Structure formats: structure tokens, C-alpha cells
Amino acid sequence: MAHLFIFGLGYTAKRIKAQAEALGWQVSATGSDGDVGFDDPAHVTEHIARAAYILSSVPPADDSDPVLDAYAESLNGKRLGYLSSTGVYGDTQGAWVDESAPTGTGRRTARAEADARWLDHGAQVFRLPGIYGPGRNPFDRVRSGKAHRIDLPGQVFSRVHVEDIATGVMAAMTGEAPAGAYNLGDDLPCSQNEVIEEACRLLGQEPPPLQTMDEAGLSPMARGFYAENRRVANGKAKRVLGWQPNYPTYREGLISLL
């Protein structure tokens, strides 16, 4: 039985764990819901040694990567995956971007540095845009009255359903794809306003009014999100991994969640 070891059993990694177990993999993980303590080197290195694949979903901390800082030597020669972010590309003013584009020019410099370190270590690096799925989606914000429509003409984002991330990672784990970066995003980058409007339509509610960022009272993190504008191309993941999203646009994703 193949063994998958996950650093950081969070929202997305739990979906990957479920899909791996459905295919017969044995899975162990660090994190509050995991069964291995990150700060127990003997236990961690034991799991690393017997794992057929090791996946990290741990974000940078203090401008460095905690997993590589602690366990880089033990990871040498292993098959590795890392959940990164399309934020490494920075702002492209709405233009399409693929894995050949430069990284490190945006607001997420620590993430870009971690991304580069994992690539140097021979990992498959999965660059993820905005993630949505059960318990984390526009319906929750609309129902709670926290949904916004921001008046920023031409603003475009990419997004991906969490289950499609899991199928992409599984395709990489179980196939012969080489190390390198892979964008896992859906086929229809669009404005956040479009998604909120469709969620309201499906719920039979009026969409919230258009507002400026000041009127909406957005947090600094949310303002940073709106400061970047790009369309993320997923062709490499389709060609090399053989991946096809089950939810190719937000429309299918929202219907599945409703």
C-alpha cells in the first residue's frame, strides 16, 4: 500500500487525503487534525522515509518555509509536492499568465521564495488561485450579508474548486509527470462580482450594491487581493498531468454546492 505523508492537514489537504484514501493510499499528516507532531523529528523522518509521496500545504512563516527549514535533508530524493499560490505571479493587469512567467514581483514575496525553494528541491509545485468549496464559498457570504460587489471595472481573478485541486494533485502523484510548476485553476477567470451575482441569482436574492473598497470597509488582506488582476492559464496541467477540472467554471461549482 502506497503511503502519502502530508505536512499540514488543512482545508485543501483534507480533500487530497480523502481522494488518496479512496484510491487505496495510506495517509498520515501533521497539523491539528493530523496524527504526527511536526516538532517530533524522529516520528516525522520515519514517515518521510516510508512515504511514496510527500505533500506540503504549509505556508511560509517568518518569511521562510518551516518544512524545508526543518526537514530539507530528509526530503532529498523523495517525490514531493507543494501547494503554492498564483499570487507568486503578481499583477499582470488582467493578462493571461502561465508557468513560464516570472515570479516574485507581487505582494507575496515570501510565498514566491518558498515556491522557488520547493522547485529547487525537485517538487511538483501546484500554484492555486482563489479556492472555494464546501464551507468556503460565495453562498456563505451572501447568506451572512458579508458579500460585496466592488466597483473595479476590468478586475479579473481565477479560482478553483477544492475537489479539482485534489484531482490535480492525485494525477501528479499517480502519474509520470516531472517536477515543476503546475497552475490548477478553472477555465473561466472572471470578476468576483460575476460570481457573487450568480450566487445571488441561484439563491433568489438581490445582489449587494456596487461599492468602492472604502465603502465596503475591506480589510488590508482583502485590499491586497483586489490590488492584483490576472488570468491564470491551466493548459500545462491539462497536457502534462492529464487533468480536467470537474468544475470548469464557477457556474458548475456553485450549482454543485447549492
TrEMBL record:
Keywords of the record: NAD
InterPro entries noted in UniProt: NAD(P)-bd_dom_sf (IPR036291)
Name this polypeptide is given: Epimerase
Species this protein is from: Aurantiacibacter marinus
